[in-house]
Amino acid sequence: MILFGAPFLDSHEETLMLSALLTLLTVFPLVAHAGVESAMQLLFGVKHFSRNTIIEMLVNNALLTVCGAWLGAVVIPLDWNTPWQKWPIPCYLGAIGGHLISNVLTILKISLMSAADKYPILNFIVSVLNKFNLSK
Predict the structure, then answer these.
(1) Is the dihedral of CA 46, 65, 22, 10 positive or negative?
(2) pLDDT tens digit string along 79-104?
(3) Which residue among 33, 34, 44, 101 is least crowded, i.e. fewest CB within 10 A of its CB?
(4) Coiled coil: which residue ranges (predicted)?
């Protein structure tokens, strides 16, 4: 949590709440779907998924949620006078934003994949999205 801008000796409750939010958005859905051992292997890159859209979505959710929280921490040192820039509010917003972006990209990809059967021109866009895979 120190990488997200957490105070070292203060704000224990806020740090615990951010940890709980990140766990609920990243680890818990993957553990519920794939099991503990497979989830840890997927998160640490030991095991790769093979064209499983749900596992791909969950791993991308985890990656973009953590990246969003980390990018949210960038605004913390800019100005301490505004209430939305105090620890851990930017990290909350970044984590939820990263999770939302990941879900929107997954829905877009699935919609394009299903529409590619009807409109063959969309196969090019689907192939580009398959090459741009965050979790490989």
Answers:
(1) positive
(2) 767 888 888 899 999 999 999 999 99
(3) 44
(4) none
